[in-house]
Design a protein that fits this description.
Blueprint (H helix, E strand, L loop, with lengths): L1 E6 L9 H5 L4 E3 L5 E3 L11 H8 L5 E6 L2
Antiparallel strand pairs: 1-4, 2-3
Length: 68
């Protein structure tokens, strides 16, 4: 299984919980909003994006499973 990761920039409030929960996948941009590190829009089978999605206080992160 492969996963897709998206951040809704209209919902993100820049709390930084994604970067704290999964620093190998997420960071914050110059304005403080969550963003994916390069090459992480497809997260493989890494469980940390799901942890970060649950940690997001506004639900701005979506993790979807895709068949490979």
């Amino acid at each position: 299984m492969d996963i897709g990761i998206t951040i809704d920039r209209d919902v993100c409030i820049g709390a930084g919980q994604c970067a704290l929960a999964a620093p190998g996948v997420f960071t914050q941009d110059d304005d403080g909003y969550g963003t994916l590190l390069p090459d992480h829009a497809r997260g493989g089978d890494d469980p940390m994006p799901r942890v970060a999605a649950r940690a997001c206080p506004v639900g701005a992160i979506t993790v979807t499973e895709r068949a490979t």
